[in-house]
């Protein structure tokens, strides 16, 4: 049983989410190979060896430079044909979701999305998918091969094992319609401080911070804890904080060891992006805020009182 | 310009949602509503029509009562509605749904097919890419700013890394973000007028979908069972009496989180 893991990369580095799915696929077992698609990506492909995968298929073409999904469907179709893969796994992202769905149509291959775990039973892939606002967990399967899964980002951590990978080039003929859309411009957002994907501690702020200025409370606490600052959809939309820090359905999914939510109600759109955090702390003045339903430690109180004092105490403890 | 907006009827946000244990499918018998983020796609289509002229068609694939959701879109200002409804379609997954929807869209020959961001019932955010592949049309997703420039569509979108600006020649498929606009409310006149707008209901056979391509037969995924979510450990919730920060920092220190 060959399982392909799509290794999404940005600025020459494979994304943490993809490496997490790779780690889980290797733990589940079978014949696991990576797939890297892009332009001039041989080094990126080889770098996957350090995460325990021995074989990486590479589709390298100047037309694959821009991170657009449709030519990647052509590329994945070619790799599935070349490898005879039965499973194709993706870590969910803006790009990967579109590639996975396009591939599903192209191959008439079943796609299960929002998968939070997968395993192999009797030689067949099985998945777990939370549904209805994560109130039930659905056991999902596929009725034919290849089987495609989009894994919720942040579900698994990368495991660095050391090692090297053999790179297998695969050529592809891109379809006309696949290359019709073109990237006109890419604007990078530079966030300051540690990125929220990599941080062990995240202090996240929501509307309850009151104003863009209120984020100073989150920044002060994050600095005390050596963590990163994140934000909810509502405050990003309001222009209080940059999109690159947005956690939730339309932002990033994160799984730090500690997630401290300041003035966040805990709407489902936000919850899906952070519920895999190790420990969740919520401080909110509304005792009925949904976030208290899934916080490990909840404080009903005034942020302006609790957050600065907490930062001060943390600084004292950490010396 | 011909714009077709694909919309879905979902269980009303205030209704209790459940999965029927007999079928492992979402119980759709209760009150339904037009999927919230699809309303943004309808709004965007209406704005494009207002700027460039043309026709706005709303299309859906679902049970007969999904016509109610289509009527809401008609009340907002869409010109006509198309519902593909067939008992044999129940339980269609992405493979089957994208196949049927693409068949219906082929008949319409739209310049632009629009989708909303995500369905609130299945949390799906994948249909546009599958439909675009079947229609063999360029596609832009997560679009937060949309414009038509000559024979092209241009979309600006947010990604994990910043912003992309993507251009595609028409005909094309675009999925919009719910940040793209503030949808209008239907006027009383719009609501009254919706009843007399053309609403066509077609069976799978009428759009050329073979019986083995729809419903469970045409699907490639299955649901084996349902289970409860993982249980939370002991939760602590305190009211701040001035000592909450002290208690919290002790609690964090005990768990070696500092």
Descriptive account of the structure:
The complex is a heterodimer of chains A (319) and B (258). In chain A, 29% of the residues lie in helices and 29% in strands. In chain A, α3 crosses α4 and α5 (215-225) runs parallel beside α9. Chain A has 319 residues and is an alpha/beta fold. Chain A contains 9 helices and 18 strands. Chain A is elongated. In chain A, the strands form 4 sheets. Chain A has a 7-stranded parallel sheet with strand order 7-11-6-1-4-5-12, sandwiched between helices. A 5-stranded parallel sheet of chain A has the order 15-14-16-17-18. By secondary structure, chain B is an alpha/beta fold. Chain B has a single domain (2-218), classed as Rossmann fold (3-Layer(aba) Sandwich), CATH 3.40.50.620. In chain B, 28% of the residues lie in helices and 30% in strands. Chain B has a 9-stranded mixed sheet with strand order 11-10-9-12-8-1-6-7-13, sandwiched between helices. In chain B, strands 2-5 form a two-stranded antiparallel sheet. In chain B, α2 crosses α5 and α3 (94-108) packs across α4. Chain B is globular, with a radius of gyration of 22 Å. Chains A and B meet through α3, α4, β7, β9 and β10 of A and α3, α4, β9, β10 and β11 of B.
The secondary-structure element order of chain A is EEEHEHEHEHEEEEEEEEHEHEHEHEH
| Beta-strand residue fraction of chain A | 25-35%
List the secondary-structure elements of chain B in sequence, H or E.
Answer: EEEEEHEHEHEHEEEEHEHEEH
Number of strands of chain A: 18
As for the CATH topology of the largest domain in chain A, it is: Rossmann fold
Radius of gyration of chain A: 21 Å
General form of chain A: elongated
The CATH topology name of chain B reads Rossmann fold
Structural class label of chain B: alpha/beta
Task: Give the helix level of chain A as a range of percent.
Answer: 25-40%
Overall geometry of chain B comes to globular
The parts of chain A where pLDDT drops under 50 for at least 5 residues are none
